[in-house]
Specification:
8-stranded antiparallel sheet, two-stranded antiparallel sheet
């Protein structure tokens, strides 16, 4: 699935080809519940946005394995979130390596990202930061992997929908004082669309990342997020100069697929 979506991205990507961003993204919420709800998955956010019919998703979690407490959900995200070993040889931890599980980033009306308290209707969320140091004439590659356990599938679906809308509302976003992304475009793929044959929903954002630490001018930015029931998984990549987009997307797709497999294994999903 992920590799097929990558091909679609390469066909229409507007990022520069010489080298992206990788910070944790906002986790949106709906109504509060006592634990993760195993209710049937809604029509995917991507399908709802395009009006396309969506096949029944293949993933089915075992209700007995779904976390119902923050402690259990935190155990899940720590077991699933990708780290250096998921990306390939030479990757290492960035500092800090993990986000604070008590916080979440929120995109303001001014298109600036800020930290906020993790809401009660998210059981757990965690981001891990990795990098491939610059070498051999190629610039540094940075990646981040984010896993979020929502209390309900509907809330997880809402997160995907809002992420799609954020790229429309804020095609240019300020990450930190000296880091920003611009020219964002997004592609949403419900199950059965654009080669997505594994996740309930999938989306890809692409644009340009600008940070003085990585040199003058923009480098490519890619954000790939998928949903399996009440769990969302994402990997962001900001590419080093001289690193091909196909290499960046392949690394990203591999990590997303490995996290999907880990969720299926731990939650008893079928397919």
């Amino acid at each position: 699935m992920a590799l097929a979506l990558c091909a679609a991205v390469l066909a229409g990507c507007s990022a520069t080809d010489d080298g992206g961003h990788g910070e944790a993204r906002p986790e949106r919420t709906g109504t509060t519940a006592a634990g993760v709800s195993p209710e049937p998955a809604p029509a995917s956010a991507s399908a709802a946005r395009t009006g396309a019919a969506t096949p029944a998703p293949r993933f089915r979690a075992d209700p007995a394995r779904l976390p119902t407490t923050r402690a259990a959900a935190l155990d899940l995200v720590r077991a699933v979130a990708a780290g250096p070993d998921n990306y390939g040889p030479g990757y290492e931890k960035r500092s800090p390596y993990e986000s604070d599980p008590a916080d979440r980033p929120v995109l303001g009306v001014d298109c600036v990202w800020r930290q906020a308290k993790q809401p009660d209707d998210i059981l757990a969320g965690l981001t891990r930061y990795s990098r491939l140091p610059a070498s051999g004439g190629r610039g540094e590659v940075r990646l981040s992997a984010t896993v979020t356990v929502h209390r309900t599938t509907a809330q997880a679906d809402s997160e995907i929908a809002e992420t799609l809308e954020e790229a429309l509302r804020c095609p240019d976003q300020q990450l930190r004082e000296s880091e920003r992304i611009s020219g964002l475009n997004s592609i949403g793929s419900g199950y059965g669309a654009n080669g997505n044959t594994s996740a309930d929903d999938s989306l890809m954002e692409m644009g340009s990342y600008l940070a003085p630490a990585l040199g003058d001018g923009p480098t490519p930015y890619f954000w790939n997020q998928v949903r399996l029931g009440p769990v969302t998984l994402a990997v962001a990549v900001q590419g080093g100069r001289g690193v091909g987009q196909s290499d960046l997307l392949t690394t990203q797709a591999r990590a997303v697929a490995e996290m999907e497999t880990a969720v299926r294994t731990r939650l008893g999903g079928q397919g």
